[in-house]
Amino acid sequence: MQSGLKKSRSYSLTAALLVSAAAITAPVWNARPAEAQTEAAQKTYSFDISASSLASGITEIGRISGWRIAYTVTLPPLGAPRTLHGTMTVPDAVSQLLKGTGLTMRLAGDNSLLVLDPQQESAGSAVLDPVVVEDTRTLGTLPPDYAGGQVASGGRLGVLGNTDIMDAPVSITSYTSEKIADQQAQSIAEVLKNDPSVRTPNSSGGMLDTYQIRGFNINTGNSGEVAFDGVYGVAPTYRALPDYVERVEVIKGPAALLGGMAPNSGVGGIINIVPKRAGEEDLNRVTAEYGLGDQAGVKTDVSRRFGKDNAFGVRLNGGYQKGDTYLDNQSREASQLSAAVDYEGEKLRASLDLINQAEHLNAPFREYRLATGVDMPSAPDGHRNVINDWEWSDAQDRSGMLKGEYDLADELTFFGGVGVGQTQVDRLFGYPIITSNDGDVEDDSLSYMRFQTERWTANAGLRGEFDTAVVHHKAVFEASQYQDIFRRGQIFSATDPVSNIYDPVSSAPISVAEPDFRPKISRSTLTGFTLADTLSMLDDKLLLTLGARHQSIEADNFSATTGAITSSYDDSAVTPMAGVVVKPWEQVSFYGNYLEGLSKGDIAPSTASNAGEAMKPYVAKQIETGVKLDFGSFGATAGVFQITKQAGQLDGTLYTADGEQRNRGIELTVFGEVTPDLRLLGGVMFLDAELTKTNSATTRGNRPVGVPEMQANLTAEWDASFLDGLTFSGTVTRTSQQYINTTNTQEIPGWTTLDLGARYKTELYDTPVAVRFTVQNVTNEKYWSGVNEFSMISLGAPRTALLSVSADF
After folding, report:
1. What is the dotted CATH code of the domain comprising 275-808?
2. I need a labelling partner for 757 at 20 to 30 A (CA). Which of 19, 145, 522, 721 fits?
3. Sign of the CA dihedral running 384, 388, 390, 393
4. How far apart are CA 24 and CA 29, in angstroms?
5. Which pLDDT score, from 0 to 100, does residue 467 have?
6. Mean pLDDT across the stretch 598-614?
7. At 2, which helix (H) or strand (E)?
8. What's CA 786's distance to the chain center, in Å?
């Protein structure tokens, strides 16, 4: 009966997707190209721009509207800043910007415009329509913001480079720095909460962020699963602060070819941080913050370009926060300092990123475990914290990355980079376990631990474009290597304090000796060779991406006492990728893909008859198809996917790799401007997840731990008509119930939260100022927010508020 219900639900979801896709695309199928171009030219947008140069004004008009505005002429300087304020069409906005310069403009296709010099045209100079070229460059270029500024019009597809969302054969979303600032996000985990396919199953008051994409967990752990500018091993591991982040990208699916094998074997998707770079205009920004309890902080953002043709750029970001949080007993101190230096020459482009980040927590919140035979109690007030104020954690991250690319020819580029990262963590706390139906807790395994992870990464390759007959190729070859060494010292207490989740009890401090040193525990080396090609045909209406990656995996585990190798792993696998994009109309893109991801195979435990045997690398496989819509200022996507992932298990006394989890899902998303003063961002994911292969009849066919059936987000922003610069926003987040165990006998209920915000952007004495105010969980819901892969349960945050003021001097 249960299987029949699951099939019925799957068919219903598929039918819902088809109906939604048909409803969304119907208007586009009936549109004629000439009508579409006329409608695009007549569409109005709300502009509030003060441009000190024509280049910056053109960039801002394009960012706000999503239009592609090109020019091949020399832009004359402006005598004074030019202001564009009000609701108007893009042609009207560009005409106002160009007034008195002697330049003109003309339309060059849907949402495209060309700036011209009439004298050059009259002299017989040939002027071609602008063509958007995704060339061999990856450094110093980013896809423009989509209309509304919350997401970008494209993102980086790993080794394939920057790609427009309509040309990408996978599902990708790129959240902008404007969205990060307006949301007042305190970490990239908070940014990704906007994505209906992503959840963060950790507690926000803890010492680390973890992620779940399409129902598969990504444990940042000690190696880190977040890429930095397309490379693993550089981003801070436990938590990445957003101060130095230009964009947060998420590519959904086990894309080992695009980003390489993740160090901790995550297969649900790729999270990538795009670092900030110096812009064309000087920037001196200071932001003061207060909230999330009694935390106060200040951030600075300084940017300059200099040298001939402004080839050199420097971007400096700093931040400091300190104070009590919304959790009982807890205080927090965090700081970060980062520097980004770049060079943009005619053929050579290079960048250097340096990051120093630290976070100290007193009473860091820990996820709960549930003792055997205990019923899951209802959630307490979100302020409650059973961790004592004498328990603490310190995390320090230092990292750097040097990248460069050189044009060997017009359409052939050599690229390479090296990166390093080090994470040090000292902490004293336990792992709370709920021991009774009344919410009694034991702070189990109280310990003093010292961690250290050292990481190195390097890559090099060639990226180029060429034609064969009627087919255009964008090919890439890359060789890469990642290595990490993990060290850990630990001493456990003989006493574990007790408390209660509803009425926490303060315990007397327990003395635990500091470990003398951090012995080496493990070493991993991941080496990969990738070859991929995107073939463009029929005037780019058909795109086919094919590729493969050969991945080698080497790992050693060491005895903490003798340093001897206790187990080793050395194996390799080839992961292919195939993706197709069909664009029958400019506004519609159909896509499909087959992706594979890799995880290091387990080593059979000592209790197995084949103890010590290394399993072959586990392979995760995805098939996906969907449709993407782009109406110029508003977009939508609809997709269906299936991911299967191998797992190891004991079959009697024999350890095998024949376990399997299968997740089938439907995703619907929307983004952009519904009207010039109304923006939407969000969507819904329905997920039919199942343990398809297990060695126990009590778990086979069950739902995996911590995987909801439905996740939904919707953010709406409205620019007030009665006061220019004032915007109101609201976000609704819904997550359905989640099981705590594989037998599906314990669960946490579903939950819904509401966040409200307001911001006001204006000028005071010629100084741009932005005031932002956000209230999270307005209704103060009490809820369990998530369950991770280890059956550890997170408590949702209570009603909290955050106020910030930014000024550009």
Report:
1. 2.40.170.20
2. 145
3. negative
4. 10
5. 94
6. 85
7. helix 2-29
8. 19
Q: Which of 394-398, 500-504, 581-585, 629-633 has the lowest mean pLDDT?
A: 629-633
Which residue matches tokens 């329905």?
Answer: 686
Q: What is the CA 41 to chain-centroid distance, rounded?
A: 33
Q: Which fold has domain 154-274?
A: Ferric Hydroxamate Uptake Protein; Chain A, domain 1 (2.170.130)
Please give the pLDDT value at position 573. 92
Q: Which percentage of the chain shows pLDDT scores above 70? A: 92
Helices (H), 30-162: 33-42, 54-65, 90-98, 118-122
Q: Where are the beta strands (DSSP E) in 194-282?
A: 198-199, 211-213, 216-218, 226-228, 245-252, 269-275
Instruction: Give, in order, the Cα–Cα distances in Å from 109 to each of 40, 70, 140.
Output: 9, 12, 26
Q: List the chain domain ranges.
A: 31-122, 154-274, 275-808
pLDDT at residue 138, as a whole number = 67
- Hey, what amino acid is at 631? F
Contact 490, 506 (CB under 8 A): no
Q: What is the pLDDT of residues 249-301, one digit of tens each?
A: 999 999 888 888 888 877 889 999 999 999 888 999 999 999 999 999 999 99
CA angle, residues 463, 465, 469, in degrees to nearest 5: 145
Closest CA to 382 of 710, 709, 732, 753: 753
The pLDDT value recorded for residue 491 is 96
What is the SS3 assignment for 266? Answer: coil
Residue 422, Cβ neighbours under 10 Å: how many? 14
- Residue 374 φ then ψ, to 5°: -100, 135
Q: Where are the alpha helices (DSSP H) in 84-218?
A: 90-98, 118-122, 177-183, 188-192
Q: What is the CATH number of domain 31-122?
A: 3.55.50.30
**What is the token pair recorded at 36?**
């579409």
Place of tokens 């007959």: 469
The b/e string for 223-232 (b: 16+ C-beta within 10 A; e otherwise) is bbbbbbbbbb
H helices within 413-531, ranges in order? Answer: none
**Secondary structure (3-state) at 435:** coil
How many CB atoms neighbour CB 243 within 10 A? 21
CA distances from 112 to 32, 61, 494, 515 (A): 17, 12, 70, 63
**What is the predicted pLDDT for the residue at 222?**
67
Q: What's the pLDDT score for residue 132?
A: 39
Q: Are 82 and 57 a contacting pair, CB within 8 Å?
A: yes
pLDDT category at 777 given cuts 50, 70, 90 is very high
